[in-house]
Recover the amino acids of this structure.
């Protein structure tokens, strides 16, 4: 380099600028390098100085500049107050005797400038410094070009007790102690160097400014035993900066250490970084002073952090690329200012042997992790923790946390967001997005997720919406998915892929006052409920899912809302230890309907499908077999609303097969398929003016009544085709207490322990048609009213009855009895029953309607005893064999027997 315009003694000079390709020498060069404005004026420079004598042979003096050339192999030692010492055009190496510095330039009363260029020669010393320059009262500027070897000493060292110190140049420097160092006491410290720096026992670069900024820039490989680079700024507003291209290695310390007790710190550069301790350690403590690391290159920190970036009062950020391997944190970014952000933006693999992969933490500002690459951590993999601002983890790449959490975005008063793709494996929760007093918490992920002992995906917000979207397999030791909020916002899941919660819920969604919804596809398995959706507010709860659902200790689906509509749409096998589907709304609104639409078989230790509403319509539609330890289907509305049940497929129930009840609305039941029940086969009833309609196709076997269709004042219709009825009680019972019509149409045989068909109305028409053989312990077929309604019985088939064969009776109405095949005969038992046609009609009516009222008001029929219920797998095997089990055989699921105090009108089979 060519240096011009040196500052002469006794002058005052103001200079300003930044270091460029061409650098101005002397003190002007110093000011340009520091990037500051300096006023050079000292007491020593105010008085003209007589030019001193030449410092050594081969040296000349021109004013206050000494120039040394030729043979300076014995070394140069200058103590006179030259302003400038220039060493150039050497003919030999500078290689003095042991203990003698190559160039020593020290004065007490002036600024000094050393310009040295050894060319093809070098400085080689033993037991001393290669270059030593310093002054007591002024500034020091060194520019050197050439290689230096200092065995037992420092390569280049500058000191200035009352000023600044600047070193720049090129060349390879190898030293036992620090390769390049300076420690000015009242000014800045700066280095600009191109060339390799090596220290076998010390530091590569050590710049400490006790009252000014410290900065270094350049290129070249740096190797050291202690910290490879240490830059330390002291004093008000003093910043620290490092800009370097080249590999940096510390065999016993940290690679790059920057600190500023009242300023900012920044690192920019590229190269491979290897350290025994920290790769980078940045510490900024100035007012609103940032800490910044921008680096491209692999980082290895055997026993420390890959990079630690800290700001006490400003922002803290890392940006770059490369593979990071650390014994402690891969990255740790922290700011303690109550409004400043912190971030990590990185491309490359991150490995932590003993701690976090990366952690970004703030006390009031936002915390962001963004990038891509494989992350392997001993504890948590990636954590963004914002105590105040938003927390974001945006990552693409596989994640593994051996003993901790996978991906964590956590905030107190801000939003929390995790998004990206890749396989996630963790000991604790695999993915977490949460806030305790903030806004939305969301997760959007594509890839398989595994948590050995925790939850697969956990999303929580105290006052904002919570959402999970994505695809992939989720497998967890606790809940597969847990989405909750305690506010009035949505809790939602949209997922494609299998989900397993081994010792928890497969999927758990909860909102205190907002809607909950889950949609997607995949097999879902839970140790508790496979799906558990719950809201306590005036909001909807909805499930729309395709895939098999399995619960080893709970319900297949548990869905409830306190004040909203509830709906379930599922497609696939449901295999549950307790209920198959439990759905309920507590809303008094007539529009907050409860609906179930399921396609696929249901195997349940408890109720197959249970649907409840206090005032709105209830609809249950099942296309598939139902095998349950309690009720097959239980649907109930306590209001003036319609209850509809449709089921196609076999139904095998440990209690009533289908129970459909509305307090004051229509009840519609349609069942196509073989039905076997320990209680009633079908019980459809209301206590109001709504119509009760039952249509059945297929065989029916029931321990109690076959079909019971009962209304207080509404019309009743029972139609059964293409199947027989085998029952321990009445085959078909239909009745009301009004002037509305009661109709029974039966095509098929009836084998009943009680009456075959019992139809009655207080004042309405009663019509009974039976086409098939009847074998009844009571009356064969009867149609009765107490008023003026017309009564008719039409029978075709063979009848065997323990009571009367055909009974058609009305107080004042027309009565018609038609027997198309007169094969009626009466069956006599050991205890003969009297011919009811011979009894007074009023007495018969009172007894029959009294029995029906007791049924209406006596609640639900009892469950089968525990000793009569087979396990579900036996049911499945039996069904595969094509055999219809007698409904009184088998063993019901343990722990689900209905208590007597629950058996009141409206009480449910599970009491959930």
């Amino acid at each position: 380099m060519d240096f011009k315009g040196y500052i002469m003694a006794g002058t005052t000079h103001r200079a300003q600028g930044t270091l460029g390709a061409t650098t101005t020498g002397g003190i002007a060069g110093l000011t340009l390098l520091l990037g500051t404005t300096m006023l050079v004026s000292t007491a020593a420079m105010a008085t003209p100085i007589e030019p001193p004598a030449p410092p050594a042979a081969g040296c000349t003096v021109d004013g206050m500049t000494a120039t040394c050339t030729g043979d300076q192999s014995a070394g140069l030692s200058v103590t006179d107050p030259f302003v400038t010492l220039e060493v150039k055009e050497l003919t030999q190496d500078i290689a003095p005797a042991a203990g003698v510095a190559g160039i020593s330039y020290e004065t007490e009363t002036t600024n000094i400038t050393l310009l040295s260029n050894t060319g093809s020669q070098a400085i080689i010393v033993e037991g001393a410094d290669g270059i030593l320059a310093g002054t007591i009262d002024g500034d020091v500027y060194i520019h050197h070009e050439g290689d230096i070897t200092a065995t037992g000493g420092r390569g280049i060292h500058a000191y200035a007790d009352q000023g600044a110190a600047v070193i720049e140049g090129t060349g390879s420097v190898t030293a036992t102690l620090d390769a390049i160092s300076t420690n000015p006491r009242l000014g800045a410290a700066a280095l600009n160097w191109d060339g390799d720096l090596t220290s076998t026992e010390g530091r590569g670069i050590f710049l400490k400014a006790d009252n000014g900024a410290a900065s270094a820039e350049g290129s070249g490989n740096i190797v050291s035993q202690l910290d490879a680079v240490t830059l330390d700024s002291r004093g008000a507003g003093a910043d620290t900066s490092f800009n370097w291209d080249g590999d940096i290695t510390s065999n016993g310390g940290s690679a790059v250490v920057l600190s500023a007790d009242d300023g900012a710190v920044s690192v920019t550069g590229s190269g491979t970084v290897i350290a025994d301790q920290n790769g980078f350690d940045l510490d900024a403590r100035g007012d609103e002073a940032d800490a910044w690391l921008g680096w491209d290159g692999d980082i290895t920190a055997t026993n420390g952090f890959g990079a630690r970036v800290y700001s006490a009062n400003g922002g803290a950020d890392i940006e770059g690329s490369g593979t990071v391997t650390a014994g402690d944190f891969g990255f740790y970014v922290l700011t303690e200012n109550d409004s400043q952000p912190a971030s990590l933006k990185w491309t490359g693999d991150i490995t932590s042997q003993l701690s976090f992969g990366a952690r970004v933490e703030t006390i009031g500002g936002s915390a962001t992790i963004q990038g891509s690459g494989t992350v392997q951590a001993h504890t948590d993999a990636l954590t963004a923790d914002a105590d105040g601002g938003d927390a974001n983890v945006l990552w693409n790449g596989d994640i593994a946390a051996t003993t901790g959490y996978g991906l964590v975005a956590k905030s107190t008063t801000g939003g929390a967001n995790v998004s990206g793709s890749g396989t996630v494996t963790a000991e604790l929760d695999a993915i977490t997005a949460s806030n305790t007093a903030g806004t939305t918490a969301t997760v959007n992920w594509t890839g398989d997720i595994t948590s050995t002992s925790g939850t697969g995906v956990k999303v929580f917000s105290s006052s904002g919406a919570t959402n999970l979207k994505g695809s992939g397999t989720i497998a967890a030791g606790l809940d597969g998915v847990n989405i909750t909020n305690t506010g009035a916002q949505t809790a939602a899941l949209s997922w494609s892929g299998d989900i397993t919660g081994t010792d928890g819920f497969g999927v758990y969604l909860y909102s205190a006052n907002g809607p909950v919804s889950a949609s997607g596809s995949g097999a879902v398995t839970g140790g508790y409920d496979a799906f558990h959706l719950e809201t306590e507010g005036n909001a909807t709860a909805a499930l729309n899912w395709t895939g098999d659902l399995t619960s080893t200790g709970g319900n297949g689906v548990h869905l409830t809302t306190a004040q909203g509509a509830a709906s379930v749409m599922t497609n696939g096998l449901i295999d549950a230890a307790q209920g198959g589907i439990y759905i309920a709304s507590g809303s008094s609104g007539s529009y907050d309907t409860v609906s179930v639409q399921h396609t696929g078989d249901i195997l349940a230790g408890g109720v197959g499908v249970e649907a409840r509403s206090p005032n709105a319509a209830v609809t249950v539609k099942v296309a598939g077999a139902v095998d349950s330890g309690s009720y097959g289907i239980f649907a109930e509305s306590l209001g003036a609303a319609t209850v509809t049940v449709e089921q196609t497929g076999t139904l095998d129930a440990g209690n009533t097969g289908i129970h459909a009840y509305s307090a004051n609305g229509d009840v519609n039941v349609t069942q196509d398929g073989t039905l076997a029940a320990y209680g009633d086969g079908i019980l459809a009833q209301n206590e109001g003016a709504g119509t009760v309609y039952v249509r059945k196709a297929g065989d029916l076997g029931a321990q109690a009544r076959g079909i019971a269709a009962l209304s207080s004042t509404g019309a009743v219709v029972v139609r059964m085709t293409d199947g027989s009825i085998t029952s321990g009680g009445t085959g078909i019972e239909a009745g009301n207490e009004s002037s509305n019509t009661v109709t029974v149409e039966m095509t098929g045989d009836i084998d009943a322990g009680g009456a075959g068909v019992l139809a009655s109305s207080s004042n309405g028409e009663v019509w009974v048609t039976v086409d098939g053989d009847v074998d009844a312990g009571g009356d064969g077929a009867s149609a009765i009213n107490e008023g003026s309604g017309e009564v008719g019985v039409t029978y075709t088939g063979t009848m065997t009855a323990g009571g009367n064969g055909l009974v058609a009776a009305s107080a004042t109405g027309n009565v018609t009895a038609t027997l198309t095949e007169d094969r009626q005969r009466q069956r006599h038992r050991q205890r003969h029953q009297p011919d009811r046609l011979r009894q007074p009609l009023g007495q018969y009516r009172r007894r029959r309607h009294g029995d029906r009222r007791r049924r209406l008001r006596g609640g639900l029929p009892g469950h089968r005893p525990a000793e009569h219920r087979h396990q579900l797998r036996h049911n499945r095997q039996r069904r595969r064999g094509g055999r219809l089990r007698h409904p009184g055989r088998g063993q019901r699921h343990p722990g689900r027997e209905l208590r007597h105090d629950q058996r009141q009108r409206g009480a449910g089979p599970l009491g959930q």
